[in-house]
Amino acid sequence: MSAPLNSDPRIDQAAVTDESLLSVHEAMLGKQPDEKARYKLLPLNLLFLFSGLIFFAGTYLNRYSGHFDPHIYDENAHPVKGGAVAAVAVDPVVAGKKLFNNAACNTCHMANGVGQPGAIPPLVGSEWVTGSEERAIRIVLHGLQGPITVNGANYNSAMPPFGRVAGSGFNWSDDKVASVLTYVRQEWGNQAPPVTTAKVTEIRTKEGDRKPWTVDELQKIP
Amino acid sequence: MTNDSTHATSAEVTAIDSQARGPLCVLLASGLAWLVISGVLGVITSIQLHTPGFLADCSFLTFGRAQALRETSFLYGWIANSGLAVALWVLGRLGGSPLRVLNWAVAGALFWNLGLTIGLIGIGTGDMTSFGFFQLPRYVQPLMLIAYGAIALPGVLAWSGRRTSGLYASQWYGVAALFLFPWLFSAAQIVLLWAPLRGTLQAVAAGWYTQSLWSLWLAPLALTGAYYIVPKVAGRSMPSYDFSSLGFWTLVVIGGWTGGRHLVGGPVPAWIATMAVVACSMMLFHYIVVALNLRIASHGSGTAIRFIRFGLVAYSLTGLLDALSSFRGVAVEWQFTLLATALEQLGLYGGISMMIFGGIYYMVPRLTGRPWASGALTSGHRVLVSLGVVLLIVTLAVGGWTQGDELLNPKLGVGTIYTQLKLSLMIGTAANVALLAANLFLLVNFIRSAVVCCGTSAAAESAFRQPAALEAHAS
Asked: Of the candidates B375, B467, B472, which has its C-beta nearest A14's C-beta?
């Protein structure tokens, strides 16, 4: 059909009835675009367009949303995570306890630090532990071999090197060595000053790589 | 009044039209009266832009208030009354039975316009709110909300009690417009007037209302008529109609998210403006689908379809420019210039109003049962209003183009910039005068048509040709 020629500006003629308008368009809605395998290019293009717009929207939103942070007013700003990152001081006793119980210390010295008679010396009340930090640091760094007298009792065994030295199976950082020493020097009633990381580093640098200490060698050190 | 039995002989004009005549003419008459009033105010504000002393000692009509009065009477007077009249009529036609409870619509129209009148007096005496498109003082807003419900009721009943099977795009848009406005209006009243949000949230809510009023109320209201009249006159089925529902839902779902586009560079979190930019781009899909569906408007002839064709071009252009100007790089020059005004006028006058004009030209002969009283006034209105709109938008856009650049130049004083705009603003006044004159033509023509039909009505029936059935054809 052709549209009516509306030559009179005073009235617009209708070309089609309301009923047919409704029924024809209702029928069009249910129709699949690929019915009978005849693709119509337009719906396909529209789908691509719609997807393209969604893709653009997602990308743009991701780039300029300021991570939906209510405090970011500049779309190019990057959010700061809850204040500046500051090193939190770790309690060496807490860290040392963790190392003592999760590494190898407690298997020989026991969790309560009493050791084993004749073999492993105790840490509780030991003059080697609470005494010179120079000696204690060296023992943990490089290990100890041969007989040792603690609180008047004799012990004979070998302690492996724990520090970051050649032949060490543990390779603990100076931090860890300091923490574990501080822990054993202040636990079970022991009351000795803490061991600093700097001191450990100093001794490790001074001694370098070497074989485990013996009691005789240690007694020459103050 | 017209004898219904004579109407029954013509399938094109039925009891659906004749029974709705009185109530819809009340709405139309109020709408056109407000259009002329807002036209007068438009001339006044336009003159004040280049001659600031004009009426400056009349507090009622100082620029700020006159501008709010113009905007409010245009939106809530002209578009609301006339747009609702067209939408109600289309819903009634497509529902297949005469509109029910039309007295409610009449009562609603009376109270709506009473509220609007009180509101405008309130604005004039200094009670306006500070939100764009929402300046009505809060004491009239609840009344208007209730009145709106009464006007919308016949449309809702025509939709829920329809005798026809299936729903057509006009009905989606019409019903959406009827239901979405009360939501927008009441939500905005609560968060802006009765329990105001504080701080920047207020700006966000105001932006949401302004944009939503456009995309969730004005646009669907205008498209209700366009989707109905274009295939009726062009005599073709709608191409790519299977995508129209996607276009509709894009408008409904995305439309409200475009609110932050006026807040680019403002004191709000970056994501609000970013979301609005994205939403404006997504809305392109709606505009493209509408343009594809209604491109058959190029086939018809006659007054109504010419208006709607103009309206559709302007509507699509609005969508495109809306998306473009929302981007931050563009907004930095575009915001706060005459370009923004030009875009608003392109949407409201070029898009929405022209489509409603088309709807009125198509509907009134069917309500009255006879052609418009004067062909000369009809053509005169069409030519003059088209020229006026084009002139207004082009001059505003040209003025705003340089203004945006100059406002960013710290070496130029604001006074210098506005002196340079004077020519554009004076041409803008001429355009506003043309629009006022054009709309007076329409008002006179409408009054003559409506008055004539109150007399005898025998001769006119033959004016309508019998429409054929629409054939489905691939397009």
From this structure: B467
Q: Indicate whether A193 belongs to any domain.
A: yes
Alpha-carbon dihedral B150, B154, B160, B164, rounded to 10 degrees: -170
* Residue A98 and residue A57 in one domain: no
- Let me know if residue A46 belongs to a domain: yes
Q: pLDDT digit of tens for each residue in chain A (222 aa)?
A: 455 667 788 888 888 888 888 888 888 876 655 566 666 666 788 889 999 999 999 999 999 988 888 888 888 887 666 666 777 777 888 888 888 887 778 888 888 888 888 788 888 888 888 888 888 888 888 888 888 888 888 888 888 888 888 777 788 888 888 888 888 888 888 888 888 888 888 888 888 888 888 888 888 877
Chain B residue numbers with beta carbons less than 8 Å from the beta carbon of A25 are 166, 168-169, 231, 237-238, 241
A99 shares its domain with A200: yes
Q: Are A51 and A109 members of one domain? A: no
B229, B240, B468 member nearest A46 (Cβ): B240
Owning domain of residue B379? 19-453
Indicate the number of domains in chain B: 1
Residues A59 and A135 in one domain: no
| Closest residue in A to B305 (Cα–Cα) | A12
Range of the structural domain that residue A148 is part of: 92-219
Best interface-test mutation with A: which of B14, B274, B449, B464 has the largest number of A CBs within 10 A?
B274
- Could you say which of B233, B237, B472 has the minimum Cβ distance to residue A3? B233
